[in-house]
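We read letters as residues; the fold follows as tokens. Both lines appear below.
***
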Amino acid sequence: MTTIDQRTLADTAANRAVQAIIEQQVADGRQVGVQVAAYQAGKPVVDAWAGQMGPADSRPVQPDSLFLSFSVTKGVTALAIHILADRGIIDYDTPAAKYWPAFAQHGKDRITVAQVLSHQAGLHAMPAGPFKTEYITDWDAGIKRMEHGIPAYEPGTSTGYHAVTHGWLAGGMVQGASGRHIKEVIASEIAAPLGVAESMFVGIPGGLDERLTTLEVHAAGEGMGLPADSDFHKAMPLDMWDSFNTMPIRQACLPSGNGHFTARALAKMYSALATDGSVDGVRLVSKERLSHMQRLMTDQVDLVLGTPVRKGIGFFFGGETNGVVGAMGPRTSAFGHPGAGGATAFCDPEVGLSIAVTINKMAFALPGQGTTEEICNAIRKELRAE
């Protein structure tokens, strides 16, 4: 296992409070393994970890342990696209088909990049029938499915969470606009400059097995009584979830949902977005680009998730929904992305804060409740950022 020279990057009251919380969550059986990291004003203020590597893996979690964090990946993918936009390579309000001509089929010729990234393309459904591993591992086939896909509604008129398909949609646009694979853009434009190249992966390379945590999997939507042909299960098939612990799925490139991260890496990335686009002297985007990341694209009821979701260009936003405030907190200017089962990473620019929580026990708490909310609320309280 990779060694860490410093036991911790943060010796603060907030860090001590979070350490106590996550150790208690583990003791209560509410977590298996967890990492938490936070920055404020560009400096690390929380760096905590607890628990074990998996439900059947008693090795203790380390700060460099890698957690598959599901749709937290979408926030990293979004930043990659905003970086390209900052360089004039891609434009949010241009039809995606300008960069990806084959995408124009079946009435998709006018849907913009921003609409695609805010889940308004109507292409949320995975292939019908039993789930097959190659649906995720075959990149070219995924791209082709998006090209030939028929929208479930008039693009731009509704929104339905593209839980898995978002990865190929983002990847197809990036390939067409830049000539580069999105995996390479993430690695070279985000991970390497930030010094987290060994802690931020979309597709695990060989040689990292000892650092991989194992998920205690609980399928999203299980027990909800939704029919198999519901939009929820079309987007996230029940028989898909167990596959995420397998190496073929871990090694595939799925920029919507199989990113492996440390909380440290995610918190550092979002710290740049919480301030002026830079952290530790590394600039990811211009300060002016940050307002585009906070652009609200839709707050409609999501046809897949069944609840209103405030969505931007690749990011979700904080604020109150149906009277409840989630992990990202009360401010609608906060942005980032949660992952199925409890992982999250986001920034809250009004208070210069970034938070990342990586977990390996999937749990689907009631809105405004659960382990992740407890952790994030405690950080805001300790830092007087409520």
User: Anything to note?
Assistant: The mean pLDDT is 95.
